[in-house]
Protein 1
Amino acid sequence: MKRSIGGLAEAGEELIQKAIDAQRRLRQAELDGASPEEIELFRAVADLRYRLVTDHQLITRGNAPHILH
């Protein structure tokens, strides 16, 4: 990752896209009738990706979360 505003923005965009993709995979698994275990795995991945987006946004604004995962 570049240590510039542009680099931070690019990293944020990539994280957001990955979070959106994870949410789509979760919804598709639900529609396809995946097992509860698979759905829970997709849900955990989607939640983690959104948490990473939030943490990234806080860090770039100088408000790092108290606990980084």
Protein 2
Amino acid sequence: MLYTLALERLGVSAAEAWFVGDSPRNDVWGPQQVGLRAAYLPTGHALTGQTPDATLRDLRDVLSLLPRP
């Protein structure tokens, strides 16, 4: 699966990463199937039963997902 390949190449576990996107199926449901946390950026694709781990107001909100030092 593409998500696990990307994690392997980056050298991180799914628990250490976020997947951000605007497609409920591809960017919320899909990543969650391999243990990634999913942040949803609503841009016109409505959620249809998916439950993102975070919902962003705009792309700048990605910074709020980063751990604080």
Protein 3
Amino acid sequence: MGAQTVGEKVFGVFNTILMIGLCFITLYPFVYVLFASFSDAAAFLQHRGLLLRPVGFNLDAYKAVFQNPMIITGYKNTLFYVTVGTAINLLMTAVGAYVLSRRNLFFRNFLMFAIVLTMVFHGGLIPSFMLINKLGMMNTPWALLIPGAISTFNLIIMRTAFQGIPVSLEESAKIDGAGELTILFRIIIPLSMPVIAVMILWYAVGHWNSYFSALVYLRDRTLYPLQLVLRDILIANSTDSMSTGAAADDKYAIGETIKYATIIISTLPIICLYPFLQKYFVKGVLIGAIKE
């Protein structure tokens, strides 16, 4: 390759500056929340402009957050919903995708049409509430896990990925006496790990961020997920009980830093998990999207 022209160098410098600016714009809100959570409450309220470091570094907000029993309870509940819910999601989605990927399945096109139709039309909140109530799942963890056991979009992606696996592998397994479940769990799923990793990421993040279903179906606060506890803190402004040792004039200031600390605590696990699955993300989506 020849030397770059002046125009190409200028274009490269412009692109570099543009990308640095976009990275700053993208990352700064998270950095702001992080620095605010480590800041002194009174000094933070008096600060104006960009926040490029903690103002009066202290850990009072995090101490107050971890002293709140609802935060710990919410964490435990959310971990249960994420692990059990994601396992149910993967099992149901994989079985459904495997069945729909069989070329000899009767009424396969009609079943796919009926499933895709649910992406456009659904009963709505009130019929769903009545159904959950009639099934006896109100105020139980199953109200958050069972109704959304299969995502139609994820089912279509996984089905398309399964269809891309050579039929000869399945035929060889059947000659050796393998049944359908053996083929699914010993051949299909191990060969579809990029898509499985993407499904784990999508389902886990969905469970971690979900709060609306809990808001509708749960009345027992001991079953609240972390995001619903976070909602009470951020929207309902229920930080007074977390700043009991502060004077009345300081409660508002401490409440502000407590909100930021709670956001960091609720976001950090997903941020730590994503780098381990990111390498599968693009590959899995492309496999599920372009093969047919």
